[in-house]
Amino acid sequence: MQVHGLKDRTQDLRKSLNDSLEGDIRDFLINEAELHTYDDLTKVNPVTPSTVLKCLQARYSAKVFYTHAGCTLVALNPFQPIPHLYSLDVMREYHTAPQPQEFKPHIFIVAEEAYRNVQGQVEPINQSLVVSGESGAGKTWTSRCLMKYYATVAASSQKCQDTVEKIERRVLDSNPVMEAFGNACTLRNSNSSRFGKYIQLQLNGSQLLVGASVQTYLLEKTRVAFQAPTERNFHIFYQILAGLLQLGNVYFSPASEEAQPCFLQKAADLLQVPLDELQSCLTVRTLLAGKQSVLKPCSQSECGVRRDCLAKVIYAQLFDWLVTFINNSMCADSSMWCNFIGLLDVYGFECFLLNNLEQLCINYANEKLQQHFVAHYLKAQQEEYVTEGLQWSFIRYQDNQGCLDLIEGSPSSIFSLLNEECRLNRVSDAKQFRVRLQKELSDNASISWDKLSKEPHFTVAHYAGNVSYQIEGMMEKNKDPVPPEIISVLQKSQDSLLHSLFADGDRESEGSRGHSKVVTVVSKFKNSLESLMKILHSTTPHYTRCIKPNPDCRPLTFKKEEVIAQLEACGIVETINISALYMFCAVFLSFCVPPRQAWMDALAEAELDDAEDFMENEASSVLPKLDPLLKERGSVQLSSIQEPVLVRGWPIGLAMASAPSVTVSLTATGFQRIMSMMACLKSPFRHGGYKVKTNQFDQGVASIRAQPRGSIKMHLQRSPLLYADMHPVHKTDVVTGFNQILTGRSHCFSTAVDALTKAN
Fold this sequence. Notes:
Keywords: Actin-binding, ATP-binding, Motor protein, Myosin, Nucleotide-binding. GO terms for molecular function: actin filament binding; ATP binding; microfilament motor activity. This is Myosin XIX. Belongs to the TRAFAC class myosin-kinesin ATPase superfamily. Myosin family. One of its GO terms (cellular component) is myosin complex. The chain is an alpha+beta fold. About 45% of the residues lie in helices and about 10% in strands. It has 28 helices and 16 strands. A seven-stranded mixed beta sheet has the order 1-2-14-3-10-6-7, sandwiched between helices. A three-stranded antiparallel beta sheet has the order 11-12-13. α1 (about 1-20) packs antiparallel against α23 (about 595-620), α6 (about 140-155) runs antiparallel to α7 and α7 packs antiparallel against α12 (about 300-330). The radius of gyration is 32 Å and the shape is globular. The two termini are about 30 Å apart. The model is unreliable at about 510-515, about 585-595, about 630-675 and about 680-760 (pLDDT under 50).
């Protein structure tokens, strides 16, 4: 009866608090003048999408573009230069600060935290800074700021100054070159990264920058031959007009019409290849019939495909050569560096009017990164609560495993079916492939089809929204065939660079594959992405979520619909909820969180009532047998129960108030036991003396809720906490409040004891 009564009281309280949630939101939003002061969204109370959105809007209007969201930094793109925010003086200010976290939120706080983790050799020592967000949110700019920061702070020492400055210049100078060859103007972003890159900044034992390397992913080489209306080619084509653009002037006419080879001649001159061989490789294909070769003229459309293929293969090889050249110029020997900080700048989630294989791969990469974020922060945090025996209501975060199974799963997935079509080496049929998708994958809730659409397509329910993909042309892009005639012509080029790009001749071409395994675009991309995820899982990640405030890239313009969609897609609200819960030890939490103090008061009342019920049972009966469930949940030990019980996850003050006898258990011995006790009691530490280590350390205090090895017993007849001064004047040289009680240095303690003596 008592247990049911407790549950009924708790449910009634929950209902009344939920009923008053709207009032709490109104009360919070009334103080509009103070909304911009919330530099950490975990301080927002209550946490709802509307309150979070209002705070971000207020900060954006006040030209404050960075906001903490618990374990994540939210960066709003101002769409205009803010030079004073990233000056050298600001960098040095954050780098030299004893506690950078006390400064205003900034990307430099994230950078400095990672750098100090390397300095302190906190496991895992290597760091990864993951900059995510949709196209146009500011990822490239953020990565550029991080590179500048590390190149500056890692060169602050006088040791090996010349070497460090040389590496710094090369690291920074490589960025605009790669942006020129890999970025382009799109519908949503004037400087969109059309490839992903992971930049590894290599540090020696003194944490000086001694080298760097770049790993790239999925260059969108189709952009060389085709751009959507109002979009542009890669920046480099508008900066240096040379070789490849001439191929765009080459058109093919039917055999009955007279050809005009002037543009083809110009292209042959620039490529430094024979005109007749260039014309032949574009218009005639070689077929293998047994041991004999048969020449067959290409159709007009096939000639266009071959022309585009020539341009794409040259550009892709040139881009790879550029990355290799940059790496060779700045990558340090493995003996010179021991740790690294990685910067991941990957293309954001994309959804256009026409989406094909490129968008599928890009969005697949974003799905993997979202899963990594969920696994690292949300799942790990919630599982820790369960392990420690805390009462817990799970937050319904967005688990995208079903979508990943649809794209990459085994035995059947979009990728596996695409690869199977390529291995069959037959003419692609978009309608037939759609039928196969429906037959094999219709059980997966993440895929659907628009029955009214005339074009073959499929729609994927991504974590950031639904995207419809056109099937037409997808199989050809996945094959990525290169006719052997094209490779043969390029190997004969008199241009030294172009000749070196194709001299090895080991590139798989359309005719050399035979019956060997076809290496498709999605297979190569999946393998490279898996290697990246292994790196991320082996490092300490730091997440920055870039938000695009409006779709038109207008300065200081905040569109609520645009922002809230991105906040919900990347799980910011869930992150805030869990981070706030971790900080304040709240026990019950749902999507809309009621005030954190009301819950604690209710829990304290319920737990004290629970303790009184046990005391009544003790007085009226034989010693009660300890309930295994209460033991598992860490119930407070009563003096009449002989079996010791761990107090786990309880605020220590509440435990003292509700039990006459408490055992406080620690995880270490000797000096570390003393440090554990001081951490538990929150005794002040002198600056520069010693510190309590986090649970990332192999030794030291993992948690004040960790399993014990030794114990310290404190016996109190009744808690003097009720009479203690809980809010004394702050003094840095004394122990105050509850800690005074435990150390015997508080006048309040003796006063409380006198009061209890007189009362008894």
